[in-house]
Specification:
The structure holds two protein chains of two kinds.
Chain A (H helix, E strand, L loop, with lengths): L15 H13 L3 E7 L10 E7 L6 H14 L3 E8 L6 E9 L7 E7 L5 E7 L12
Antiparallel strand pairs in A: 1-2, 1-3, 3-4, 5-6
Chain B lengths: L3 H5 L11 H8 L1 H11 L4 H22 L11 E5 L5 H14 L8 E4 L1 H4 L7 H12 L3 E5 L14 H14 L5 E6 L1 H10 L1 H6 L2 E5 L4 H14 L3 E2 L1 H16 L5 H23 L6 H5 E2 L1 H5 L9 H8 L1
Parallel strand pairs in B: 1-4, 1-5, 2-3, 3-4, 6-7
Helix pairs in contact in B: 3-4, 3-5, 7-8, 11-12, 11-13
The chains are: A alpha+beta, B alpha/beta.
């Protein structure tokens, strides 16, 4: 099951050139671009691990592609995303976020039904991947 | 990650002929070269080398458009010469030139020295060097006094780590940035013989000659006119004498010495106007540097007192 979070996630995987163009758009807008990775694909897992500092003063997106490739060397089998942070007053938030690397095998999510008082059923989703301990997921 | 899309894209029609003169005009290279000729005094061999390099890059670009060449040529350069011979200024122009020819995307110049690349403790160097390299991507990285990176007397110096990262990025990210190493000629030669990797990765070695006395005099005039000052006739001959004397003294740094001398002359001129002139001053008086302003320099009395003492001992 292909994980669909952030932008462009219903499109085919982005090539390095695509990443460069998108990151350059963010840089030209004055947003700080950074690279993050995780092995917990739950949609509510907002804060991924940072790969280096956010790039506040790099005028060219080649640096972003370089860092993405460095991150792939260390965490090639996990999810890697590029985010762009807008620091202008009133925003101070993420403006762009897209996945640039995903595991070869994405097992997807299962639904867990919890029987509560009376006839209430509570639903939750859980990735099959997180059954393994952190660091041992996605082989 | 995958380049299938670019590979599948249909081949665009390649031009059959190329008009070099038109490409020369359209790229704006001519403006940069003209500006270089106009604003930089002297430096004949440097200008010649830059013109040759521009011609090579223009032809290479045309060849690539016709599908004759595919590799990005090696553009890393080495500027050697004494202090104050215009290495940084020419590097700025070079960045502009490469940008107009389309070899770098942004054309900005990032100037760094050893301090910006080498860290102070283990594990500090690599992030620092990579940070500087990332900042320079899309432009030109200018490493001033590059030989300080290599400290042969200390084999555990972190400079070696910075050199290894530099070499790796210079090789793998040739499309993304151009590295220019600069420094004194003799020490750069020693640096290259200790790091053969650098010599083979640098295609263009450009030597900056010292300025002659006449060229320095012209530079002085240009520097002053840029700030709306002028020398009178007495000051002009005093300046010529000053240049000849200053060259013989220690720590002579070509155009930089001249700039400092002129800054001090302006200071003396301001003091003179303040203490002597009582009448209303016109613009000419405010912008003229006289012989007295130049002759008051310590250079005419044999340089700094400390240097003179050292010479006597």
């Amino acid at each position: 099951m292909k994980l669909t979070q952030g932008q462009f996630s219903f499109l085919p995987d982005l090539s390095d050139d695509d990443i460069r163009v998108q990151a350059q758009y963010a840089i030209d807008k004055g947003w700080a671009v950074s690279v993050e990775w995780t092995d917990d694909p739950h949609p509510r897992n907002t804060y991924w691990e940072m790969w280096g500092h956010p790039m506040f003063d790099n005028p060219d997106a080649a640096a972003v592609v370089y860092e993405v490739n460095e991150c792939r060397k260390a965490h090639g089998g996990k999810y890697i995303r590029v985010i762009a942070f807008d620091s202008t007053p009133g925003w101070e938030s993420i403006r762009m976020s897209f996945i640039v690397n995903r595991p070869a095998e994405e097992p997807g999510f299962r639904v867990v039904r919890q029987e509560a008082e009376g006839r209430v059923i509570r639903y939750t989703i859980e990735s099959y991947a997180v059954r393994q301990p952190e660091g041992a997921r996605y082989a | 990650m995958n380049n299938t899309e670019t590979e599948m894209r249909p081949e665009t029609a390649r031009p059959q002929t190329v008009d070099l003169a038109a490409a020369y005009q359209a790229s704006g290279v001519r403006d940069v070269l003209d500006e270089l000729d106009r604003t930089m005094i002297g430096l004949g061999p440097v200008k010649q080398r830059i013109k040759e390099t521009a011609a090579l890059l223009l032809v290479d670009k045309a060849r690539r458009e016709m599908g004759l060449a595919v590799e990005t040529p090696t553009l890393h350069m080495s500027f050697t010469g004494n202090p104050g011979t215009g290495k940084t200024t020419v590097a700025l122009k070079m960045a502009d030139l490469l940008h107009r020819l389309g070899y770098v995307r942004k054309g900005h110049l990032v100037t760094v020295t050893r301090d910006d690349l080498v860290g102070q403790y283990i594990g500090h160097t690599a992030p620092k060097t990579k940070e500087a390299l990332k900042k320079a991507m899309g432009g030109v990285l200018f490493i001033d006094e590059a030989y300080y990176l290599h400290r042969p007397e200390n084999e555990r110096d972190y400079g070696q780590e910075a050199i290894e990262i530099l070499l790796q990025v210079m090789e793998n990210n040739r499309d993304d940035l151009v590295v220019i190493l600069a420094g004194y000629a003799d020490r750069m030669d020693r640096f290259y013989s200790a790091n053969p990797g650098f010599r083979s990765r640098i295609a263009h070695h450009i030597e900056f000659p010292d300025y002659t006395d006449e060229e320095l005099a012209r530079i002085a005039e240009v520097m002053l006119s840029e700030q709306n000052y002028a020398l009178d006739d007495g000051a002009r001959s005093a300046m010529a004498e000053y240049i000849a004397l200053r060259r013989a003294q220690p720590h002579f740094a070509n155009a930089r010495s001249i700039r400092n001398a002129l800054d001090r002359a302006r200071l003396r001129q301001a003091n003179r106007l303040f203490s002597t002139a009582a009448t209303p001053l016109d613009a000419a008086a405010l912008s003229t540097i006289t012989e007295a302003d130049i002759r008051a320099s310590r250079v005419f009395r044999g340089g700094l007192d400390t240097d003179r003492k050292r010479a006597m001992e």
